[in-house]
Amino acid sequence: MGGVPTLSRYVSAFRNCGLRPSDRLAVALSGGPDSMALASMTLRWQGVVKSEQAPLALIVDHKMRPESTEEAQAVAEQAAQLGMRTSVLTIDWSPDALAQGDRMVAAREARYAALLRACGEQGCGHLLLGHHAGDQAETFLLRLLHASGVAGLACMPAVAQKRTECGVVQVVRPLLSFHKAELEQYCRASGLRFVLDPTNSHLAYHRNRIRHALHEYPRSPALSGGDTVGEAGPSFTHGRGDSQAAVQWGAPMASLPTTLSEEVQEGDSKASRSSSSASRSSSSASRSSSNSDSSHGSGHSQSIVSDLLMLQRRCQAYAAQEQKDTQRLLQRAVLRSSCSQLQQQSMQDEDSAQHPQALQQAQRERPVTRFKRERGLDHLARQRVWAQSRPWFIDWHVRLDQVAHVLQPLPFALLAAGHFGRERAPHQNQVALSALSRILQAVSGSKYPPPLAHALQLRQMLRPGHMGGTFTGGGCLVRRLPRCKGRFVLCIPVDQLRTAEQLLRQLPPINAFEEARQRAKAAAQAEAAAGFQGGEADAQGQL
Predict the structure, then answer these.
(1) Is the dihedral of CA 300, 304, 306, 307 positive or negative?
(2) How many other β-carbons are positioned within 10 Å of the β-carbon of residue 205?
Protein backbone atom coordinates (compact mmCIF):
# COMPACT_ATOMS: atom_id res chain seq x y z
CA MET A 1 0.00 0.00 0.00
CA GLY A 2 3.00 2.29 -0.32
CA GLY A 3 3.56 5.08 -2.79
CA VAL A 4 1.67 8.20 -3.75
CA PRO A 5 -2.07 7.59 -4.38
CA THR A 6 -2.94 7.84 -8.06
CA LEU A 7 -5.64 10.02 -9.57
CA SER A 8 -7.80 7.07 -10.60
CA ARG A 9 -7.69 5.61 -7.10
CA TYR A 10 -9.08 8.59 -5.23
CA VAL A 11 -11.51 9.43 -8.04
CA SER A 12 -12.97 5.93 -7.69
CA ALA A 13 -13.03 6.38 -3.89
CA PHE A 14 -15.10 9.55 -4.30
CA ARG A 15 -17.48 7.84 -6.72
CA ASN A 16 -17.91 4.86 -4.41
CA CYS A 17 -19.20 7.27 -1.77
CA GLY A 18 -22.00 8.34 -4.12
CA LEU A 19 -20.74 11.86 -4.77
CA ARG A 20 -22.04 13.61 -7.89
CA PRO A 21 -20.78 16.67 -9.80
CA SER A 22 -23.83 18.70 -8.77
CA ASP A 23 -23.34 18.13 -5.02
CA ARG A 24 -22.40 21.11 -2.86
CA LEU A 25 -19.39 19.94 -0.86
CA ALA A 26 -17.81 21.16 2.36
CA VAL A 27 -14.42 19.90 3.56
CA ALA A 28 -13.47 19.85 7.23
CA LEU A 29 -9.98 21.31 7.09
CA SER A 30 -7.69 21.15 10.12
CA GLY A 31 -4.39 21.79 8.34
CA GLY A 32 -3.04 18.30 8.97
CA PRO A 33 -1.80 15.98 6.21
CA ASP A 34 -5.09 14.06 6.12
CA SER A 35 -7.37 17.04 5.59
CA MET A 36 -4.96 18.84 3.25
CA ALA A 37 -4.72 15.73 1.07
CA LEU A 38 -8.53 15.47 1.13
CA ALA A 39 -8.89 19.11 0.05
CA SER A 40 -6.47 18.67 -2.85
CA MET A 41 -8.10 15.38 -3.92
CA THR A 42 -11.54 17.01 -3.80
CA LEU A 43 -10.41 19.80 -6.12
CA ARG A 44 -8.85 17.34 -8.55
CA TRP A 45 -11.95 15.13 -8.45
CA GLN A 46 -14.13 18.13 -9.24
CA GLY A 47 -11.84 18.91 -12.16
CA VAL A 48 -12.30 15.37 -13.49
CA VAL A 49 -16.09 15.39 -13.19
CA LYS A 50 -16.25 19.06 -14.35
CA SER A 51 -18.01 20.43 -11.29
CA GLU A 52 -18.50 24.21 -11.36
CA GLN A 53 -19.14 24.69 -7.62
CA ALA A 54 -15.92 25.21 -5.64
CA PRO A 55 -15.87 23.29 -2.32
CA LEU A 56 -16.18 25.11 0.98
CA ALA A 57 -13.30 24.70 3.44
CA LEU A 58 -14.52 24.76 7.06
CA ILE A 59 -11.73 25.51 9.55
CA VAL A 60 -12.54 25.17 13.26
CA ASP A 61 -10.73 27.34 15.79
CA HIS A 62 -11.07 25.45 19.08
CA LYS A 63 -9.52 28.22 21.20
CA MET A 64 -7.84 25.49 23.27
CA ARG A 65 -4.29 26.69 22.55
CA PRO A 66 -2.95 30.26 22.29
CA GLU A 67 -1.71 29.73 18.74
CA SER A 68 -4.94 28.12 17.44
CA THR A 69 -6.33 31.35 15.95
CA GLU A 70 -3.15 32.07 14.03
CA GLU A 71 -3.02 28.49 12.74
CA ALA A 72 -6.67 28.65 11.63
CA GLN A 73 -6.02 31.82 9.63
CA ALA A 74 -2.93 30.27 8.01
CA VAL A 75 -4.91 27.17 7.01
CA ALA A 76 -7.67 29.38 5.58
CA GLU A 77 -5.14 31.31 3.49
CA GLN A 78 -3.66 28.10 2.11
CA ALA A 79 -7.13 26.78 1.25
CA ALA A 80 -7.92 30.03 -0.56
CA GLN A 81 -4.71 29.66 -2.55
CA LEU A 82 -5.87 26.20 -3.63
CA GLY A 83 -9.10 27.71 -4.99
CA MET A 84 -11.52 26.86 -2.18
CA ARG A 85 -14.07 29.03 -0.45
CA THR A 86 -13.18 29.37 3.24
CA SER A 87 -15.01 29.85 6.51
CA VAL A 88 -13.40 29.90 9.97
CA LEU A 89 -15.64 28.60 12.76
CA THR A 90 -14.83 29.78 16.28
CA ILE A 91 -15.93 27.79 19.32
CA ASP A 92 -16.74 29.82 22.42
CA TRP A 93 -16.18 27.71 25.52
CA SER A 94 -17.94 28.29 28.82
CA PRO A 95 -15.66 28.87 31.84
CA ASP A 96 -15.98 25.32 33.21
CA ALA A 97 -16.72 23.42 29.98
CA LEU A 98 -13.17 22.06 29.61
CA ALA A 99 -12.69 21.44 33.31
CA GLN A 100 -15.24 18.61 33.34
CA GLY A 101 -14.73 15.29 31.57
CA ASP A 102 -12.40 14.51 28.68
CA ARG A 103 -11.10 17.52 26.76
CA MET A 104 -10.77 15.46 23.58
CA VAL A 105 -14.39 14.29 23.72
CA ALA A 106 -15.64 17.82 24.40
CA ALA A 107 -13.57 19.24 21.53
CA ARG A 108 -14.76 16.54 19.11
CA GLU A 109 -18.42 17.05 19.95
CA ALA A 110 -18.11 20.82 19.67
CA ARG A 111 -16.27 20.49 16.36
CA TYR A 112 -18.91 18.22 14.81
CA ALA A 113 -21.73 20.45 16.01
CA ALA A 114 -20.07 23.53 14.49
CA LEU A 115 -19.34 21.77 11.19
CA LEU A 116 -22.87 20.41 10.78
CA ARG A 117 -24.40 23.76 11.71
CA ALA A 118 -22.19 25.55 9.16
CA CYS A 119 -23.12 23.03 6.44
CA GLY A 120 -26.80 23.64 7.09
CA GLU A 121 -26.39 27.42 7.04
CA GLN A 122 -24.24 27.41 3.88
CA GLY A 123 -26.51 24.95 2.03
CA CYS A 124 -23.87 22.24 1.69
CA GLY A 125 -25.46 18.82 1.62
CA HIS A 126 -22.20 16.85 1.96
CA LEU A 127 -19.51 17.21 4.62
CA LEU A 128 -16.20 15.51 3.74
CA LEU A 129 -14.00 14.29 6.61
CA GLY A 130 -10.38 13.17 6.36
CA HIS A 131 -10.59 9.96 8.42
CA HIS A 132 -8.21 7.34 7.01
CA ALA A 133 -7.48 3.66 7.53
CA GLY A 134 -5.43 4.30 10.67
CA ASP A 135 -8.29 6.22 12.28
CA GLN A 136 -10.64 3.34 11.50
CA ALA A 137 -8.25 0.83 13.07
CA GLU A 138 -7.86 3.01 16.18
CA THR A 139 -11.63 3.27 16.53
CA PHE A 140 -11.95 -0.51 16.17
CA LEU A 141 -9.41 -1.17 18.93
CA LEU A 142 -10.86 1.54 21.15
CA ARG A 143 -14.36 0.06 20.94
CA LEU A 144 -13.02 -3.47 21.27
CA LEU A 145 -11.34 -2.50 24.54
CA HIS A 146 -14.65 -1.03 25.74
CA ALA A 147 -16.45 -4.34 24.95
CA SER A 148 -18.62 -2.88 22.19
CA GLY A 149 -21.01 -5.12 20.30
CA VAL A 150 -20.98 -5.88 16.61
CA ALA A 151 -22.76 -2.62 15.80
CA GLY A 152 -20.08 -0.66 17.65
CA LEU A 153 -17.25 -2.62 16.01
CA ALA A 154 -18.64 -1.64 12.61
CA CYS A 155 -16.99 1.73 13.41
CA MET A 156 -17.22 4.71 11.09
CA PRO A 157 -19.31 4.28 7.92
CA ALA A 158 -18.15 5.76 4.64
CA VAL A 159 -21.45 7.65 4.32
CA ALA A 160 -23.77 8.64 7.18
CA GLN A 161 -26.74 10.97 7.54
CA LYS A 162 -26.87 13.67 10.18
CA ARG A 163 -29.95 15.78 10.83
CA THR A 164 -29.55 19.50 11.46
CA GLU A 165 -31.91 22.39 11.94
CA CYS A 166 -31.52 23.27 8.26
CA GLY A 167 -31.97 19.74 6.87
CA VAL A 168 -30.05 16.49 6.38
CA VAL A 169 -26.27 16.54 5.84
CA GLN A 170 -24.39 13.58 4.38
CA VAL A 171 -21.16 12.94 6.29
CA VAL A 172 -18.72 11.36 3.79
CA ARG A 173 -15.35 9.75 4.56
CA PRO A 174 -13.74 8.97 1.18
CA LEU A 175 -10.23 8.26 2.57
CA LEU A 176 -10.99 5.20 4.70
CA SER A 177 -9.03 3.00 2.28
CA PHE A 178 -5.91 5.22 2.41
CA HIS A 179 -3.13 4.88 4.97
CA LYS A 180 -1.67 7.91 6.73
CA ALA A 181 1.78 7.34 5.20
CA GLU A 182 0.24 7.50 1.72
CA LEU A 183 -1.48 10.79 2.51
CA GLU A 184 1.74 12.29 3.85
CA GLN A 185 3.58 11.22 0.69
CA TYR A 186 0.78 12.74 -1.39
CA CYS A 187 1.16 16.07 0.44
CA ARG A 188 4.94 16.08 -0.08
CA ALA A 189 4.61 15.16 -3.77
CA SER A 190 1.95 17.86 -4.29
CA GLY A 191 3.88 20.53 -2.39
CA LEU A 192 1.17 20.95 0.26
CA ARG A 193 2.16 22.44 3.60
CA PHE A 194 0.59 20.85 6.65
CA VAL A 195 0.76 21.31 10.40
CA LEU A 196 0.77 18.71 13.17
CA ASP A 197 -1.41 19.15 16.25
CA PRO A 198 0.80 18.65 19.35
CA THR A 199 -2.15 17.29 21.35
CA ASN A 200 -2.14 14.19 19.12
CA SER A 201 1.15 13.12 20.73
CA HIS A 202 -0.03 13.42 24.34
CA LEU A 203 -0.26 9.90 25.75
CA ALA A 204 -2.67 11.03 28.47
CA TYR A 205 -5.53 10.41 26.04
CA HIS A 206 -6.69 6.87 25.34
CA ARG A 207 -6.89 7.21 21.56
CA ASN A 208 -3.39 8.65 21.40
CA ARG A 209 -2.04 5.68 23.34
CA ILE A 210 -3.70 3.31 20.87
CA ARG A 211 -2.26 5.31 17.96
CA HIS A 212 1.18 5.17 19.54
CA ALA A 213 0.89 1.40 20.05
CA LEU A 214 -0.17 0.83 16.43
CA HIS A 215 2.69 3.00 15.19
CA GLU A 216 5.47 1.75 17.47
CA TYR A 217 4.56 -1.81 18.51
CA PRO A 218 5.36 -3.48 15.16
CA ARG A 219 8.77 -1.80 15.12
CA SER A 220 10.08 -3.73 18.15
CA PRO A 221 13.25 -5.86 17.93
CA ALA A 222 11.14 -8.99 18.32
CA LEU A 223 9.64 -8.39 14.88
CA SER A 224 12.16 -6.36 12.93
CA GLY A 225 15.42 -7.75 14.29
CA GLY A 226 16.27 -4.47 16.00
CA ASP A 227 16.49 -2.36 12.84
CA THR A 228 15.13 1.16 12.83
CA VAL A 229 11.92 1.52 10.82
CA GLY A 230 10.72 4.90 9.57
CA GLU A 231 11.78 8.35 10.54
CA ALA A 232 9.50 9.01 13.51
CA GLY A 233 9.91 5.67 15.31
CA PRO A 234 12.41 4.99 18.09
CA SER A 235 15.79 3.53 17.18
CA PHE A 236 16.28 -0.05 18.41
CA THR A 237 19.79 -1.43 17.89
CA HIS A 238 21.52 -4.75 18.38
CA GLY A 239 23.56 -3.45 21.30
CA ARG A 240 23.54 -5.07 24.71
CA GLY A 241 21.98 -2.01 26.26
CA ASP A 242 18.70 -2.72 24.46
CA SER A 243 18.54 -6.42 25.28
CA GLN A 244 16.21 -5.76 28.21
CA ALA A 245 13.84 -3.80 25.95
CA ALA A 246 13.94 -6.62 23.41
CA VAL A 247 12.84 -9.11 26.03
CA GLN A 248 10.03 -6.83 27.22
CA TRP A 249 8.71 -6.30 23.70
CA GLY A 250 9.23 -9.84 22.48
CA ALA A 251 7.70 -11.77 25.38
CA PRO A 252 4.03 -10.90 24.75
CA MET A 253 4.42 -11.06 20.97
CA ALA A 254 5.68 -14.64 21.05
CA SER A 255 2.29 -15.87 22.25
CA LEU A 256 0.29 -13.79 19.77
CA PRO A 257 -0.41 -14.69 16.13
CA THR A 258 1.77 -13.03 13.54
CA THR A 259 -1.19 -11.22 11.97
CA LEU A 260 -4.83 -11.07 12.83
CA SER A 261 -5.73 -12.44 9.41
CA GLU A 262 -4.06 -15.75 10.29
CA GLU A 263 -6.17 -15.94 13.43
CA VAL A 264 -9.36 -15.38 11.45
CA GLN A 265 -8.49 -17.89 8.72
CA GLU A 266 -7.36 -20.71 10.99
CA GLY A 267 -10.15 -20.30 13.58
CA ASP A 268 -10.18 -22.36 16.72
CA SER A 269 -7.31 -24.62 15.56
CA LYS A 270 -4.97 -21.69 16.23
CA ALA A 271 -5.57 -22.02 19.98
CA SER A 272 -4.01 -25.51 20.10
CA ARG A 273 -0.67 -24.41 18.59
CA SER A 274 2.29 -24.54 20.99
CA SER A 275 4.18 -21.39 22.00
CA SER A 276 7.39 -22.56 20.35
CA SER A 277 5.67 -23.02 17.00
CA ALA A 278 4.11 -19.58 17.31
CA SER A 279 7.52 -18.08 18.06
CA ARG A 280 9.06 -19.70 14.97
CA SER A 281 6.22 -18.48 12.75
CA SER A 282 6.57 -15.00 14.24
CA SER A 283 10.29 -14.84 13.56
CA SER A 284 9.94 -16.15 10.01
CA ALA A 285 7.16 -13.68 9.25
CA SER A 286 9.20 -10.83 10.68
CA ARG A 287 12.17 -11.69 8.44
CA SER A 288 9.96 -11.74 5.35
CA SER A 289 8.24 -8.49 6.31
CA SER A 290 11.52 -6.74 7.08
CA ASN A 291 12.50 -7.20 3.44
CA SER A 292 9.33 -5.46 2.33
CA ASP A 293 9.98 -2.64 4.82
CA SER A 294 13.10 -1.73 2.90
CA SER A 295 10.85 -0.54 0.06
CA HIS A 296 8.32 1.32 2.22
CA GLY A 297 9.11 2.09 5.83
CA SER A 298 5.74 1.58 7.52
CA GLY A 299 4.96 -1.90 6.15
CA HIS A 300 4.55 -3.54 9.56
CA SER A 301 2.17 -0.84 10.78
CA GLN A 302 0.10 -0.96 7.60
CA SER A 303 -0.08 -4.76 7.82
CA ILE A 304 -1.62 -4.68 11.29
CA VAL A 305 -3.94 -1.84 10.28
CA SER A 306 -5.05 -3.86 7.23
CA ASP A 307 -5.77 -6.88 9.43
CA LEU A 308 -7.80 -4.78 11.83
CA LEU A 309 -9.72 -3.28 8.92
CA MET A 310 -10.51 -6.77 7.63
CA LEU A 311 -12.09 -7.63 10.98
CA GLN A 312 -13.87 -4.28 11.00
CA ARG A 313 -15.36 -4.91 7.54
CA ARG A 314 -16.64 -8.30 8.67
CA CYS A 315 -18.25 -6.71 11.69
CA GLN A 316 -19.68 -4.01 9.44
CA ALA A 317 -21.26 -6.57 7.09
CA TYR A 318 -22.72 -8.53 10.00
CA ALA A 319 -23.98 -5.32 11.64
CA ALA A 320 -25.68 -4.25 8.40
CA GLN A 321 -27.60 -7.53 8.23
CA GLU A 322 -28.40 -7.31 11.93
CA GLN A 323 -29.70 -3.77 11.45
CA LYS A 324 -32.07 -4.94 8.71
CA ASP A 325 -33.38 -7.74 10.92
CA THR A 326 -33.72 -5.32 13.83
CA GLN A 327 -35.69 -2.89 11.69
CA ARG A 328 -38.05 -5.66 10.60
CA LEU A 329 -38.56 -6.69 14.23
CA LEU A 330 -39.25 -3.10 15.27
CA GLN A 331 -41.79 -2.69 12.48
CA ARG A 332 -43.70 -5.71 13.79
CA ALA A 333 -43.24 -5.26 17.54
CA VAL A 334 -43.69 -1.48 17.97
CA LEU A 335 -47.45 -1.00 17.72
CA ARG A 336 -47.73 2.67 18.71
CA SER A 337 -45.06 5.23 19.60
CA SER A 338 -44.56 8.96 19.92
CA CYS A 339 -40.77 8.70 19.33
CA SER A 340 -39.63 9.69 15.85
CA GLN A 341 -36.95 6.97 15.89
CA LEU A 342 -39.62 4.30 16.34
CA GLN A 343 -42.27 5.62 13.98
CA GLN A 344 -43.62 2.59 12.21
CA GLN A 345 -43.28 2.44 8.43
CA SER A 346 -45.06 0.05 6.17
CA MET A 347 -42.79 -2.77 5.03
CA GLN A 348 -44.86 -3.07 1.88
CA ASP A 349 -44.19 0.57 0.95
CA GLU A 350 -40.48 0.12 1.62
CA ASP A 351 -40.28 -2.99 -0.55
CA SER A 352 -42.22 -1.29 -3.34
CA ALA A 353 -39.88 1.71 -3.25
CA GLN A 354 -36.85 -0.57 -3.49
CA HIS A 355 -38.35 -2.84 -6.16
CA PRO A 356 -40.23 -1.00 -8.95
CA GLN A 357 -41.29 -4.34 -10.46
CA ALA A 358 -43.20 -5.15 -7.27
CA LEU A 359 -45.02 -1.79 -7.58
CA GLN A 360 -46.01 -2.57 -11.17
CA GLN A 361 -47.22 -6.00 -10.12
CA ALA A 362 -49.31 -4.42 -7.37
CA GLN A 363 -50.88 -2.03 -9.88
CA ARG A 364 -51.82 -4.91 -12.19
CA GLU A 365 -53.46 -6.75 -9.27
CA ARG A 366 -55.44 -3.70 -8.13
CA PRO A 367 -58.92 -5.12 -8.97
CA VAL A 368 -58.20 -8.24 -6.92
CA THR A 369 -56.91 -6.10 -4.07
CA ARG A 370 -60.06 -3.93 -4.15
CA PHE A 371 -62.22 -7.07 -3.97
CA LYS A 372 -60.24 -8.34 -0.98
CA ARG A 373 -60.50 -4.95 0.68
CA GLU A 374 -64.28 -4.90 0.30
CA ARG A 375 -64.48 -8.42 1.66
CA GLY A 376 -62.26 -7.32 4.56
CA LEU A 377 -64.60 -4.41 5.31
CA ASP A 378 -67.55 -6.81 5.41
CA HIS A 379 -65.59 -8.96 7.84
CA LEU A 380 -64.87 -5.95 10.06
CA ALA A 381 -68.55 -4.99 10.04
CA ARG A 382 -69.54 -8.51 11.12
CA GLN A 383 -66.85 -8.44 13.81
CA ARG A 384 -68.16 -5.10 15.09
CA VAL A 385 -71.69 -6.49 15.35
CA TRP A 386 -70.33 -9.56 17.12
CA ALA A 387 -68.41 -7.39 19.61
CA GLN A 388 -71.50 -5.28 20.37
CA SER A 389 -73.45 -8.40 21.27
CA ARG A 390 -70.74 -9.44 23.76
CA PRO A 391 -70.17 -6.71 26.34
CA TRP A 392 -67.12 -8.44 27.84
CA PHE A 393 -65.15 -8.30 24.53
CA ILE A 394 -62.07 -6.02 24.45
CA ASP A 395 -61.13 -4.52 21.09
CA TRP A 396 -57.38 -4.09 21.58
CA HIS A 397 -56.89 -2.13 18.37
CA VAL A 398 -59.23 0.54 19.71
CA ARG A 399 -57.74 0.29 23.18
CA LEU A 400 -54.18 0.79 21.95
CA ASP A 401 -55.32 3.83 19.98
CA GLN A 402 -56.89 5.25 23.13
CA VAL A 403 -53.74 4.68 25.18
CA ALA A 404 -51.57 6.24 22.47
CA HIS A 405 -53.89 9.25 22.28
CA VAL A 406 -53.76 10.08 25.99
CA LEU A 407 -49.98 9.48 26.20
CA GLN A 408 -49.17 11.58 23.15
CA PRO A 409 -47.52 14.40 25.20
CA LEU A 410 -44.97 11.91 26.57
CA PRO A 411 -42.36 9.75 24.85
CA PHE A 412 -43.71 6.19 24.93
CA ALA A 413 -43.81 2.93 23.02
CA LEU A 414 -46.50 0.23 22.97
CA LEU A 415 -44.99 -3.16 22.20
CA ALA A 416 -46.28 -6.60 21.29
CA ALA A 417 -44.44 -8.91 23.68
CA GLY A 418 -44.99 -12.00 21.54
CA HIS A 419 -42.52 -10.85 18.88
CA PHE A 420 -39.66 -10.87 21.39
CA GLY A 421 -40.33 -14.47 22.42
CA ARG A 422 -39.65 -16.02 19.02
CA GLU A 423 -36.25 -17.53 18.31
CA ARG A 424 -36.26 -19.27 14.97
CA ALA A 425 -32.54 -18.68 14.29
CA PRO A 426 -29.47 -18.47 16.52
CA HIS A 427 -28.92 -14.79 15.81
CA GLN A 428 -32.49 -13.84 16.75
CA ASN A 429 -31.46 -13.30 20.36
CA GLN A 430 -28.95 -10.64 19.34
CA VAL A 431 -31.55 -9.04 17.06
CA ALA A 432 -34.03 -8.89 19.95
CA LEU A 433 -31.40 -7.33 22.21
CA SER A 434 -30.57 -4.73 19.57
CA ALA A 435 -34.25 -3.88 19.10
CA LEU A 436 -34.85 -3.54 22.84
CA SER A 437 -31.77 -1.32 23.18
CA ARG A 438 -33.05 0.98 20.46
CA ILE A 439 -36.48 1.14 22.12
CA LEU A 440 -35.04 2.00 25.53
CA GLN A 441 -32.70 4.60 24.03
CA ALA A 442 -35.46 6.24 22.00
CA VAL A 443 -37.98 6.40 24.84
CA SER A 444 -35.47 7.58 27.46
CA GLY A 445 -34.06 10.19 25.08
CA SER A 446 -30.50 9.16 25.92
CA LYS A 447 -27.64 9.93 23.58
CA TYR A 448 -26.10 6.48 24.10
CA PRO A 449 -27.60 2.96 24.19
CA PRO A 450 -28.51 1.49 27.58
CA PRO A 451 -26.20 -0.99 29.34
CA LEU A 452 -26.28 -4.47 27.88
CA ALA A 453 -27.30 -5.91 31.27
CA HIS A 454 -30.55 -3.91 31.18
CA ALA A 455 -31.42 -5.15 27.69
CA LEU A 456 -30.64 -8.73 28.76
CA GLN A 457 -32.90 -8.44 31.82
CA LEU A 458 -35.79 -7.09 29.75
CA ARG A 459 -35.20 -9.78 27.14
CA GLN A 460 -35.47 -12.49 29.82
CA MET A 461 -38.77 -11.05 31.03
CA LEU A 462 -40.18 -11.04 27.47
CA ARG A 463 -38.82 -14.46 26.48
CA PRO A 464 -42.06 -16.40 27.31
CA GLY A 465 -43.95 -14.19 24.83
CA HIS A 466 -45.68 -12.18 27.55
CA MET A 467 -44.61 -9.98 30.44
CA GLY A 468 -45.52 -10.86 33.99
CA GLY A 469 -43.83 -8.12 35.99
CA THR A 470 -42.39 -4.61 35.81
CA PHE A 471 -38.95 -3.70 34.47
CA THR A 472 -36.96 -0.61 35.41
CA GLY A 473 -33.69 0.13 33.64
CA GLY A 474 -32.09 2.12 30.87
CA GLY A 475 -33.97 5.21 32.03
CA CYS A 476 -37.34 3.54 31.27
CA LEU A 477 -40.14 1.73 33.04
CA VAL A 478 -41.72 -1.18 31.17
CA ARG A 479 -44.94 -2.83 32.36
CA ARG A 480 -47.89 -4.64 30.86
CA LEU A 481 -51.23 -3.03 30.12
CA PRO A 482 -54.16 -4.03 32.36
CA ARG A 483 -56.39 -6.93 31.28
CA CYS A 484 -54.10 -8.03 28.40
CA LYS A 485 -52.36 -10.95 30.19
CA GLY A 486 -48.97 -9.44 29.39
CA ARG A 487 -49.37 -9.50 25.60
CA PHE A 488 -49.08 -5.70 25.22
CA VAL A 489 -46.34 -3.73 27.00
CA LEU A 490 -46.01 -0.02 27.71
CA CYS A 491 -42.55 1.60 27.83
CA ILE A 492 -42.29 5.11 29.30
CA PRO A 493 -39.47 7.22 30.84
CA VAL A 494 -39.06 6.35 34.50
CA ASP A 495 -39.10 10.03 35.51
CA GLN A 496 -42.50 10.50 33.77
CA LEU A 497 -44.29 7.76 35.72
CA ARG A 498 -46.60 10.04 37.73
CA THR A 499 -47.55 12.06 34.68
CA ALA A 500 -48.28 8.89 32.74
CA GLU A 501 -50.49 7.53 35.53
CA GLN A 502 -52.48 10.77 35.61
CA LEU A 503 -52.98 10.62 31.86
CA LEU A 504 -53.99 6.95 31.93
CA ARG A 505 -56.78 7.76 34.41
CA GLN A 506 -58.44 9.70 31.58
CA LEU A 507 -58.94 6.52 29.57
CA PRO A 508 -62.54 5.51 28.84
CA PRO A 509 -63.80 2.12 30.03
CA ILE A 510 -62.14 -0.83 28.35
CA ASN A 511 -65.42 -2.44 27.17
CA ALA A 512 -69.20 -2.18 27.60
CA PHE A 513 -69.20 -4.48 30.63
CA GLU A 514 -66.62 -2.33 32.39
CA GLU A 515 -68.57 0.79 31.47
CA ALA A 516 -71.75 -0.62 33.00
CA ARG A 517 -69.85 -1.71 36.11
CA GLN A 518 -68.34 1.75 36.53
CA ARG A 519 -71.79 3.36 36.14
CA ALA A 520 -73.26 1.06 38.77
CA LYS A 521 -70.33 1.75 41.08
CA ALA A 522 -70.68 5.51 40.61
CA ALA A 523 -74.45 5.30 41.26
CA ALA A 524 -73.86 3.25 44.41
CA GLN A 525 -71.29 5.74 45.65
CA ALA A 526 -73.63 8.64 44.94
CA GLU A 527 -76.49 6.90 46.75
CA ALA A 528 -74.27 6.11 49.74
CA ALA A 529 -73.07 9.72 49.87
CA ALA A 530 -76.63 11.02 49.71
CA GLY A 531 -77.71 8.64 52.50
CA PHE A 532 -74.77 9.70 54.63
CA GLN A 533 -75.63 13.38 54.19
CA GLY A 534 -79.31 12.68 55.02
CA GLY A 535 -78.31 10.80 58.19
CA GLU A 536 -76.13 13.70 59.29
CA ALA A 537 -79.01 16.14 58.72
CA ASP A 538 -81.40 14.01 60.83
CA ALA A 539 -78.84 13.76 63.63
CA GLN A 540 -78.35 17.51 63.67
CA GLY A 541 -82.15 18.02 63.73
CA GLN A 542 -82.55 15.76 66.75
CA LEU A 543 -79.85 17.66 68.58
Answers:
(1) positive
(2) 16
